[in-house]
Amino acid sequence: MTAPGDDATPLDWEPHRYETRPWRQRIIRGPAADRKLREVTVSLPPFIRDLELPLDRTLGAMTAASAGDLSHLDLVHGRTLSALNHLQLRTEAVDSSKIENVDASLADYGRALLGVGANASAVSMASATRALATMITDADSHRAVRREAIITAHRELFRRHPDEAHRAGQLRTTQNWVGGSDYSPIGALHVPPPPETVDAYLDDLFAFANREDIPAVAQAAIVHAQFESIHPFIDGNGRIGRTLIHAVLRRRRSTRHLTVPIASALVAHRETYFDALNDYRDGRARTIIAMMATAVRIATAESWTTAKNVQEVRERWGATVPEARPGQPLFRLLDLLTEEPIINADLVASRLRLPEADAQDAVDRATAAKILTRARRSRKAPVWLAQDVLHEVEDLSARIQASARRLRKD
Q: Which strand (E) or helix (H) includes residue 171?
């Protein structure tokens, strides 16, 4: 990466400033070098509330095209295929978690969503899904991106975490850093602004996020990059920061119903994505904007395929159990499975408003028809999987990542 101001990569945004501040460990620990550290250089992002965002013709065309593609998908499938949003939402949350090296099987993830036995990674992924939904719903209902929403989303992300629950929904009050040592900012890749500046930076960020004079995809990219620079929480900044992308797109009405899995494209180039955030700090916003526009276009294109595939799955199930008629529990269960491919009898009874016996009967009939399979290790709390739909969740992520890698090579 070239130095700020290099003629080959001219600045298009105000770069971060750097200041040296006193540093002392609150708890003395770690190697001698960490314990002896007395100064730290913090990164001070620009205040962006009123900054202009110059987009050259190529970048302007990219952002306009990606937003147009997204709106078209939402217009065609947003109202008629609610299942697509559920699958996209889960794909986005899973791949956003993978960027942070949090991973679990889809079956374990589903069990965590149901609130039955699951490992810590699966619980974390389920919490990320709820945090994402919280941000999007809030932006939709208030027509604004709000500080209250990120606090609520962060609380949702960590309230079930055994080590971080006490900090859930709490802005940081200490200095944090990215990379380097576990004990001090020595060798850190990024040292965010001091904790006493976080409130002012967030006020500024949300003022920018609620502007109307900037192309939506470019605005989402800048809001995300600025949030990552501020790093207002001790943990969870990456996942909360990526939910802001969708909050901006929903507020700007680029989407009204759907949540395309943008993180699936970003995870395909994890290091390049981190490099783009570094470029932003150096005063080159173009990199993250172009990467975001490309990710939106790829995720949108593959979501068209998923919409078609889910419809075909539902039609195939109908042919498998032709005795299922509209309004009957089994027919309604098949519709539900396109949205909720991991279920238990309680969820079916609740969502379909059925007596428990009728819900269990519908599950048993779908299992006998091999539409559902019972999950392993679920004897005490039975869970069933609609493998056809789960395969599509995995395939959507894989296709987006493959497309992103092919585009990078080209």
A: none
In 113-151, which positions are buried (b, 16+ CB within 10 angstroms) versus exposed (e)? bbebebeebbbbbbbbbbbbbbbbebbeeeeebbeebbb
pLDDT tens-digit readout, 173-209: 999 999 999 999 999 999 999 999 999 999 999 999 9
For 47, how many CA atoms within 13 A lie in the half-sphere containing its CB? 11
Q: Is 294:405 a contact under the CB 8 Å cutoff?
A: no
Q: How far apart are CA 287 and CA 318, in angstroms?
A: 47
Task: Name the token pair of 375.
Answer: 């999950």
Please report where in the chains the tokens 């302007």 appear, as a residue: 60
Return mean pLDDT, the chain: 92
Closest C-alpha to 247, from 159, 146, 156: 146
Report whether 371 contacts 384 (CB < 8 A): no
Instruction: Parse the chain into domains and list their residue ranges.
Output: 17-303, 306-400
Q: Which two tokens stand for residue 110?
A: 């589903």
Yes or no: is domain 17-303 CATH 1.10.1660.10?
no
CATH architecture for segment(s) 306-400: Orthogonal Bundle (1.10)
Spatial separation of the C-alpha atoms in residues 243 and 241, rounded to whole Å: 5
Give which of 183, 238, 203 is closest to 23, Cα–Cα. Answer: 183
Instruction: Tell me whether domains 17-303 and 306-400 share a fold.
Output: no
Beta strands in 9-107, from DSSP E residues, in sequence order: 17-22, 39-44
Whether the CB-CB separation of 51 and 323 falls below 8 Å is answered with no
* Count of CB atoms situated within 10 Å of the CB of 294: 21
pLDDT band at 378 (very low <50, low <70, confident <90, very high): low
340 φ/ψ sector (left φ>0, alpha ψ -120 to 50, else beta): beta
pLDDT in tens, 129-168: 999 999 999 999 999 999 999 999 999 999 999 889 999 9
pLDDT band of residue 356 (cuts 50, 70, 90) is: very high
